[in-house]
Each structure stands twice: as structure tokens, then as C-alpha cells.
Amino acid sequence: MLILNKTAGVFSKPSKRKVYEFLRSFNIYPGTLFLHKLVLGIETSCDDTAAAVVDETGNVLGEAMHSQTEVHLKTGGIIPPVAQQLHRENIQRIVQEALSVSRISPSELSAIATTIKPGLALSLGVGLSFSLQLVDQLKKPFIPIHHMEAHALTIRLTNKVEFPFLVLLISGGHCLLALVRGVSDFLLLGKSLDIAPGDMLDKVARRLSLIRHPECSTMSGGKAIEHLAKQGNRFHFDIKPPMQRAKNCDFSFSGLQHVIDKTIMQKEKEEGIEKGQILSSAADIAAAVQHTTACHLAKRTHRAILFCKQRNLLSQSNAVLVVSGGVASNLYIRKALEIVTNATQCTLLCPPPRLCTDNGIMIAWNGIERLRAGLGILHNIEGVRYEPKCPLGVDISKEVGEAAIKVPRLKMKI
Ligand code: KG4
Ligand code: ZN
To answer: Whole-number mean pLDDT of the chain?
Structure first.
């Protein structure tokens, strides 16, 4: 049995609170009646336990989050049963906190939206079984959420962005380029053929032992690389971007990771230090890997923009490129993408960093988007399962490759 308090905490907008409280004094619950749709979003697909309550206009009424980053940094990566245990220990408290801060009664919710795909099976399972119990207890509709769809739509909470737009999603588990034509209408233009950029940056950071670096010890791998790269000189290492001959929008990062591994091994020999100690050239390596990653992402995105314009899938003069996912909080990578959007008369939009990484708000907002569009709202939860692997949209990456669009060279002066 889940125990949820009715109300507590503060509203984000006092004027709205007054309206709600006034109506409540007559036993009228605005969330369920006529004012706003309210969705509770729950996210547990990877290593963050997050929840939020968001209304139809994008107001975040309450939010809570428990990050497992520190634990996983210590164990050198995510160990799924550890992630599962931490989700189990925290989910009730986090959902309760999001609801309490929002000061709504659970009965006012229009629906509960939860990430059910893709992600770590053990982590997804915790969020889903908790949500299904809650749905059953509160008798609310359930909205299953695709984690990458949620990342893609977050921008519509923070900015006025109409469909269609192009999205580049770059995180620890994903790397894809897609055309977003509607709430659940995606054309997949390209994806990583091996690991995601965040995964590669995490591995490089681990290999460089950045957890032992006094300035980076609590940062995720990608963040540590970005931080250290500012002190480094990328020209000390010449690392070529991958897949330069493949004229498609796919990505690859494992080759790059191996090149960096070899470089680190070589430098360790030269500097006469053991694996686990910090190289004097760590910042230069960080700068070089960040630059090569940025160039690779920029080139494939440039091709995707040209493809969409060639096929009239995007406006010629008002096209929007959205970049989201944990790696999108990297300002160097954003600048590389800005060079591309400037050259192609597009607008680059990124959610604020805290909404780029995993959070409950994006899941609740995806729920609102689906409620408004009348898509995937379940009144019967029988047979709902989580899916660790799940593609996003219709895959047209073969067609993109066949178009073999040559991308003009841009000067990547970042
Ligand atoms: O979206 P996210 O929070 O989780 C999923 O993977 O879905 O992304 C986490 C990833 C990690 O690999 C982390 O190293 C990377 O995002 N990341 C960054 C930065 N901040 C987080 N990568 C590059 N630069 C950053 N500033
Ligand atoms: Zn994510």
C-alpha cells in the first residue's frame, strides 16, 4: 500500500494558489475540473529517481529527484542491481516530495506518466511497478512514456516550438537524430552504431582517473571532460573524427574511445606513471576528445539539416534544431552545433542544462503533450510492460545514407 499525504509545501505561482485555494474552500478541485490538466511524471530509466507535477501550461508545480551519480562514480559505472536497489529505496519519498511541494491532492491529478522504455530493465521495473500500484490506488489513467520522446519534447515546455523540428539527442545511453513531426511522430535519420557519446566520455574520464582529480571528483564523466578541457590544448593531439567517408547521419564512438585509450597508454609510458594516476596531459586529452566529439556530432547534424531541407521536411528559412540529453549540457558541443545552424539558417534551441539531463519534469510534460493530443492514455493497465530496448519513430536512416549528401566543410573555430 502506498501512503501519500494529501497536501503540503508551496505553490510555484502564488496567484494560482489563491485561485486553487478559493475553489477548494467550496470543495471544488480545479485540477480535475476545468482549470488545468495536471500530470505526475515518474522517471527511473537509468540512475536518477525523479518525479514532478506539471500542468497544461508548463508550470512545474513540484519536483523532486534523487541522483545516484556519486554511488556509480565510486563503483566505476552503473551496476544495475545497485541502481534498482537505490530506486526502490527512494521512489516513494521522491514521488511524495514532488506531490507535497506541488500542494495538490493526488486526487486532482489528470494522469500518471512514467518512463517504460528504453532503459535499464531493473531500473524501469521499479518505476513501472510503483506507478501501476499508484494508478490502481488513485484510479487514474496511465500514460506510458518513451524516454527519448520525452527528451525531444522538453523544448516545447520551455520555448514556443511548433512541429516539425529536428532533434539531436545525445546522452549516456543514446545518440540519435530525428525529425519530430508530432507528439509521437518521429522519423529517425541516424543513430549511433555502437556506444553513445556520454558513455564514451564517461569511459575516457574513468580511464583518465578524473574521479581522483580534486576539481572533478563529484562530476559525471562528461562534465569532468568539459571542465578539464577548458585548461587543455586540443592541438597537442590530432584525433580524427570517425566515419568521415560514410555519407549518412549515423554516429560511432567506440573507435574514438579506443584511439584515446591507446593515446593514454602511450602517454603513461612516456610520463612513467601507473594506470590510475593522473597524466600531466589529461587536460589536453580531454580537450582533444571533446573537440573530436563536437566535430563528429556537428558533421552528422549538418547532413541531417541538408537532407530535411532537400526533401522539404523542414522549413528553408525557419528550421529549428533542438539538442537535448545529458551531453547537450556541454557548452563546447553547443557552440559547434551553433556553427552548423548559423551556416544553414537554422535556429538552435537547447533546454536549460537541468532539463537536458534526466528529470521528472520532462516525463510529466510528455504526459501533458499526450493528454492534449489524446495519444496513448491507458484506462486499463493490464499487460503494460517495460521495454529495455525500443527504437524511436520510423527509421529512414537507409534513405538518408542513399542520398549521400556531401556536407560543405565548416571551420570549427570554437
Ligand atoms: O540524459 P542523461 O542524464 O542520462 C541518460 O544517459 O539518459 O545523460 C547522462 C550523460 C552522462 O554520460 C554524462 O557524462 C553526460 O550525460 N554529461 C555530459 C555533461 N554533463 C553530463 N557530457 C558532456 N558534457 C557535459 N557537461
Ligand atoms: Zn536521458
So the answer is: 92
